[in-house]
Fold this protein.
Amino acid sequence: MAAATYRHCSTTSESSLSEGLVDYYNPPTDKYSYGDYKEISSNSESDKRYTDVETINSASSLGKYIWIRGRVASVRGKGNACFLVVRSKAQYTIQVCHFKGKTDASISKSMIKFANNIQLESIVDIYGKVVAADVHSCTQNSVEIAMEKIYVVSRAPTKLPFLLDDASRSEEEIALSAETERPFAKVDQDIRLNNRWLDLRVPANNAIIRIRSGIMRLFREALYAKNFTEISSPKLISGQSEGGSEVFTTDYFGQPACLAQSPQLYKQMALSADLHRVFEVGPVFRAENSKTRRHLCEFTGLDLEMTISSHYNEVLSVLHDLFRHIFDGLEKHYAQDLAIVRQQYPSERVQFTEDPLIVHWPEAMEMLVEAGEKPDPTDDLTTAHELLLGKCVKEKFKSDFFILDKYPLRIRPFYTMPCPNNSLFSNSYDLFIRGQEICSGAQRCHNADMLEKRIAEKGIDPRTLQFYVDSFRHGVSPHGGAGIGLERVVFLYLGLDNVRKASLFPRDPGRCSP
């Protein structure tokens, strides 16, 4: 029988654009066929239907002839047979095999040779019959596909920046292998980030992005259920978002401008517009030259602001309910993704209390003193103090998640409401997971005169904030809110070693590409 022209696969040359290539829209009709597709350029619609790999099983698929599309995860040739593992959606795998046929031995053998030379990570179309098998190394472990056709949709280069098998191992596996004759390679973080699209094919890293998406979904769900309105505030602004120096500046048609450090001022002005409960999901920019494992120059902010009746504990209650919804929702709806992540990056489920766990500043200071530290009660906590406090809270209250309330006023932004009982402190709070901050918030100053006084105390030019103050002079309800760092939540909930793993394409002081 005739078949698609064989093209040797040891080269990735693109010199031949059409010679010897298979037309996707008019493929060969022979029983066995193979080759590289021409470009799939939407010439027409095809009646070819693909089966999702994750749906293929012994209960419903045996005996069926199907098409699948996926990446070549491994190739193994063995005499007159070939075995491929095809990966789909970064997490589902199925074995594909072909044995040299008796009636079509020549073309069958050529197809085996072709398949054995397909580079890893190439995208292929495969047609064949689903048969029973016992394949422990694949997610679809009770079946395999007896291949009759294989076409390369997109060919990867022979040499990749790193192998996905190497990038998919846990630190423990790598460490244990160091004592053997064949230690595993460790893929450096910069190599991963320089080829982030490849790094995100690693099942755990791909699942992290899906979990990140899930947190945004659950954030929206929880707040819509509490009658919040989603807003989108400007990211190009005149002056500075919060009067700080850590801003990215730019030219706006001859006028100085900067990228917003947060939507804070606009959230509050939205309340002045009688949008009583608002939230936003959007980018936040911080020109902070910090190269720690916890900091990014651009991250996704999950912000909320709401009016209150009498006390900012109303906001803390909403925040507690919000995070309960997120934590429970992740474990319920993203259990498979969590299992994949925890296989490579081990962590325990976050423990939290039924009601808000609020630790007041004096109590936190007392805990740290009892633990042998000497914190300054009028200054911010160091990273070491935060981690130690997290351990103390876990021991005392059996919770990884808590709210630290009543921060010193001098370390908080100008719009923070002072504590009515002690002017050294404030009606402000941070939320913590595993001893690290994920959220910062406060009751805000809603009195224009008080706000102007606070702006002056911080040494900020009041002219840059006149529009903001004016919105308060026109009347605004008492209110409070919070700003949450999405990447921080992902990073700490999953117990990752670096926040960059929680960002699609991270931005830090040393990285502005890809």
